[in-house]
Structures are given as structure tokens and as C-alpha cells.
Amino acid sequence: MSLTSFTIAEARTKLRAKEFSAVELTEAYLAAMEQGAGLNAFITTTPEIARERAKAADARLKSGSTAALEGIPLGIKDLFCTEGVLTTAASHILDGFKPRYESTVTAKLRDAGSVMLGKLNLDEFAMGSATITSFYGPTKNPWKARNSNADLVPGGSSGGSAASVAGGLALGATGTDTGGSIRQPAAFAGIVGVKPTYGRCSRWGVVAFASSLDQAGPMTRTVRDSAIMLGVMCGHDPKDSTSANRAVPDFEAALARGVKGLRIGIPKEYRPDGLNAEVSALWDQGMQWLKDAGATPVEISLPHTKYALPTYYIVAPAEASSNLARYDGVRFGLRVPGQSLDEMYSKTRAAGFGAEVKRRVLIGTYVLSAGYYDAYYLKAQKVRALIAKDFDDAFEKVDAILTPTAPSAAFAIGERMDDPVAMYLNDVFTVPASLAGIPGASVPAGLTSTGLPLGLQVLTKRWDEETMFAVCQVLEDAAQFKRLV
């Protein structure tokens, strides 16, 4: 059996039992990364750091370390600042930027003994649903449709993370989710992706896209692996004012709870006319699995769901236009000289930002401008509050909500590039939970007729990741999904 075929939980057990060393495991992944370079999952590889950390992990394992991720090789989405290592957010404008500090999440992973393999590709500044807007080129999904050789998108923005985990180039990876950027690529690549409650993981040291929505989370091969990683990643951080001062539960212990007696909400608004028949059938199958395990389905209504996408595409670009104002060629990254300061600003931003980032900055600046703020941004914030209230009301009747993760399976690279609205519709099932700040996870649950993965999404109330993990574990056990690795 190949060293790269184990899950985090299995590798952890074998490392502690000295069946192989962290150095051996890391070398196996570095070799797999070279072999799988064609996926373009990594922007920067860090083999020297990986070997150094693996060696240190072996020394600690020898002295009996039981740290949660001791010796486990992980990939880091290139949105997390890593000390002394190029951090680009997949944008030309951050050329050469090597932070002098480490993000809180990656510091926690490092301190728990994990081994950083490198920095993973993403949509530029996390803006996209297919990992095709990266300055460093698109990432390819390791899955292929049956009888087709077309390269497929891995979803986005955490597409490099999804491809690396699904393709066996990393044991797990960090992702960030603003409107579905962990859950949707997890569904496209047949892995597990978890967006925790907003405030559960520190955003300090994560390059900001939309500050009231961005949340870090794990992307792994199994539900247990995500529970292990999330337990390390989250916790209060005084450096982040949005970080919640709450105890971190034992997520791994929650996996054994089962769903007996739980009420599972099925929102009628998530079954629009024209919903893909295979997606719909899998959703029904998922509910049947939960029923068989002792849960009760309850039809619920989330009446403001239809306003979620337009609300998101006002709020997120507005926050992005403010956050991206700092990239001006003065302090770090790319600088294109000009005759004046203003000319240097405009030339740097014109050369440094890609088309999708420019589109969102323009939308955001427009909705925040005098005369339009009340008509768009303020109204969107009010609708966002109504969307959150829909979920609050629903969770008075149910313990968890089950929906599809994405409206389709992975599509071909280049297929929807010219239609931004078609691309935005990929997030139709994931955006509402982001706006409400509730936790959500995608579990691979089945294949299309052409052999491509489909995911089911589990949502729970704020701070109740434990119930989410319990439901996800039952779905995973029932689905018996066959991973690529």
C-alpha cells in the first residue's frame, strides 16, 4: 500500500506506532507532488521546509509526542501568510511578497507538528468558482469524466487545495470559504470540505477578500480527518476582533454520536425548477440514508434564499473594494513606475489585478459610492439579516439541514469563462450559509452517470459543528464513496 493512500487518522496512528517515519511520509508526498505537477495545484513548493519539519516531528515522535498532527504533510492555500515563504493570493500584484509573520491558523497547524509541503493555487484573491482566474494558470481537477479526456475545473476558490487532496499530493489542506470556496471545490473533487462558524477560526494573517464572510477551514479525504484538522485550526485569537472567545469542542468525539432522533430540514427553496436530476436524486438518497439511521426529515422554508446570490454579489465586492485598496505599489508587491503617484497607483493596479478582481472592485466601488450606498449596499445588508433570520427560525424546528452542495458536477476548463453570471450560479447552494455565518460541510456522496463526484451539504446552527460532524459521518458511512486515492 502506498504511503500516500492513508488518511490523516490512519497516518497519525502508524506514525505513533513507528510503522514509518515522518521523513518517509513527507518524501512520498514530495515525490507525488513532482509526479502530479501537471495538475498545477501548487504555486510554491517548500521541500526544504517540509524535510526540516518532518525531521523535527520524528524527533518529537521518538520522545512520545501525541500532538494532533505530528508529522502530517499538509498543503496551505496561498492566501495564508507564511513567514519567509512567498505568499501571492494567486495575484501578479503580490509578486515577491514574503511575509515576516505567520498567520494564526498556519502557526497552529505548525505547532501541532504538521509538515508544510507548499502553497496551493486558488482563484486570484479567492475571487472565483473554478480556480481559473489565478495569475499562475488554472488548476486541473484530478477527476476525468468517463470516455472523455477534457480537463475539468476543481471548483474554486480553493481549487488547488481540493486537487492536491483528491489527487494524493497532500494528506490535507487549508481552504478559505467566503461564499462556498471550501464546500463547492470539495464537492467537485470528491473530498470533504468544512466551513466552520464565522469567528471559529482566526482570520489574522489571511489575505482578506470580504472580511465579514471569509472563514478558514480544512479540506480532507474523510470526515474524521476534517474533525482532526479543525480541532487544531480554531480557537480564540486576540489579534482578530472577529475571533470568538469560545472553547473548542472535541470534534472527533462527536463523530460517534449518530443521528438517531435528529430532525433534518429539507428546504423547499433549494429545489428550483430545472434542478439537475442527478443532484436531486442524490439529495433524496442522502435523506433516505439519514432516515435509515434514525433521523426524521422535516420540510422547511428559507423564504429569502432567492435573494442570497444578489445580496452576496453586493456585500462581497463592496468589502473587496475596500480591502484591495491597500495594493497600490507603495509598500509591497508589484510596482509599475509612473510620472506621478496617482499614475503609479493606476499603472500598478491595472497590471497587477486580473479581470475578475477588477470586475468585483468596480462593482464594489459602485455600490458604496454616494447616491448608490442606500439603494444597494444598505439594502443588501438588510436582506442579509433576513436570510440569517430564516436560518434561526429553521433551527428552532430542526437540528441540521441537508442540501446539495453544488448545482452540477465539475465542468470543463474554459466552459463558462465568458459568462460571469453562470459562474456565480455555482455558489447558489453555498452562499446563504456564508451570509448567515453558520457552519457547513460538503461530503462526497455519489457519482454522476459520467463518473464525476457530487457532494451533499450539511448545515447546522452557529457553533454547532459537533452535530454537523455527526450527520456528515453517517452520510460518509452510508455513501461508501470511492476516493481516487
Which term fits the overall shape?
Answer: globular
Which consecutive residue ranges, at least 5 long each, have pLDDT under 50?
none
Order of strands, main sheet, comes to: 1-3-2-4-6-5-10-11-9-7-8
The CATH architecture classification is: Alpha-Beta Complex
Report the top-level CATH class: Alpha Beta
What does the model show?
This protein has 485 residues and is an alpha/beta fold. It has a single domain, classed as Amidase signature (AS) domain (Amidase signature (AS) enzymes), CATH 3.90.1300. It contains 16 helices and eleven strands. The protein has helices at 8-16, 22-35, 47-62, 104-111, 159-166, 183-189, 223-233, 251-254, 277-292, 308-323, 341-352, 355-368, 373-394, 420-424, 431-436, 465-479, and strands at residues 42-45, 73-77, 115-120, 172-177, 192-195, 215-220, 263-267, 296-300, 400-404, 440-447, 453-459. Strands 1-3-2-4-6-5-10-11-9-7-8 form an eleven-stranded mixed sheet, with helices on both faces. Helix 2 runs antiparallel to helix 3 and helix 10 packs across helix 12. The longest helix has 22 residues, at 373-394. 55% of the residues are buried. The model has no long low-confidence stretch (mean pLDDT 96).
Keywords:
about 475 residues, alpha/beta, Amidase signature (AS) enzymes, eleven-stranded mixed β-sheet
